[in-house]
């Protein structure tokens, strides 16, 4: 059984189909049809809901953290122990919520189909920021698509509802909601079981290891932003899933003198602060990693584990010399990330083995790390090419080079010939041109609807040239740039 709060109503579910999304649960099982389906792939934001989770801050104070999510990509099993808020829940005692009033008064809605998603994104923004600036408002709304109008009136609604906000019914009930969430906090393995399909929800790494050993055919579910597409887009059935999002040990971020250890189930939005502090280019890339709804849901371990050749984080992690800790039963092994990827969608992970955490070396003054993403749109788009460069230069000589690319091969991959052309050479334009030529030996990219093979290779070479120019003239630096 799983338990969660539907606004303030306790829901206990056991016999649901584990392939059921929160979107369809709301619309078909509880009659809340305000949440809309636009794309069923996490691109349009029409299905945005907000999930509240019990959190404890550094001072030991308990509070509820509200996050916007795409309900079309969220399986119901991930709600275990949480609070689900949909657009119907905002109206209170016959009065619209302040974010709804702002959308009306600022004329932020036309046909209205996308409006519930915008309202929920604004609600999450209001809850998480006292006075959001223009950039935060854009970030909060970047995952919501309106086909009728411009965004100016919606941004005006964001300003009106978030600046000088007043307490609402959720604030008034916070103490009671905290008590109710504590009362339903999971204490044992949860489960949804419809007879022929099941999803198991462990709470510890040990339980996860045992379950995965017992069900090696199970699909591991973290954020689900990739896995859920098999259900919503390809109409496949997932007979057995194991949801890892309630394993607290795999959601920790720990900083040591020489490394950062990030649990594989840590949401990308939670990774931002630690990674941005060490590597600002990593932080910039995370801002362009899909939408806020996706970053609130998708995990760093999932972005690695799905072994996509166009995943944004693997090239950066490879260039930084990151490692993954793999767990199987009581056995753990640490593997360099560039050895994890074998072939297209093939990794070094063994049966019943899972990524427990990612180890990222801390930055040093000698490192010259930069990252770049080439995509057709600035926001919410998949890379055509993603490049990460990490050099060490001493007395004008390159002593180490790690150059990694996504979108250039069947796997995220280092450019071995390019690195060899750089190491031991003077850091100048001549050697950069030699390294650019060597990239043609490292990669024979494919052509697809995102880019031709010629465009990809030339872009990779130009990014290396850009890297060199920016290091020589840092005042013209423009990192993580999109090329249209």
Q: What does this molecule look like?
A:
There is one protein chain. With 484 residues, the chain is of the alpha+beta class. It folds into three domains: 18-184, DNA polymerase, domain 1 (Orthogonal Bundle); 250-361, Uridine Diphospho-n-acetylenolpyruvylglucosamine Reductase, domain 3 (2-Layer Sandwich); 369-472, Enolase-like, domain 1, CATH 3.30.390. Helix content is 33%, strand content 23%. The protein is built from 18 helices and 20 strands. It has helices spanning 22-29, 98-105, 115-128, 134-141, 152-162, 169-172, 174-183, 205-214, 228-232, 268-278, 280-287, 292-297, 300-305, 313-319, 337-340, 416-422, 429-442, 453-472; strands spanning 2-6, 9-13, 48-56, 62-70, 83-85, 190-193, 198-201, 219-221, 240-243, 253-255, 259-263, 323-328, 331-336, 341-343, 346-347, 354-361, 367-374, 385-394, 397-406, 413-414. The strands form five sheets. A five-stranded mixed β-sheet has the order 2-1-5-3-4. A five-stranded antiparallel β-sheet has the order 10-11-16-12-13. A hairpin with a 5-residue loop joins strand 3 and strand 4. The radius of gyration is 23 Å and the shape is globular.
Give a short summary of the structure.
It holds the Pfam family FAD_binding_5. The chain has 484 residues and is α+β, with helices and mostly antiparallel strands.
Features:
alpha+beta, DNA polymerase, domain 1, Uridine Diphospho-n-acetylenolpyruvylglucosamine Reductase, domain 3, five-stranded mixed beta sheet, five-stranded antiparallel beta sheet, globular, 2Fe-2S_ferredoxin-type, flavoprotein
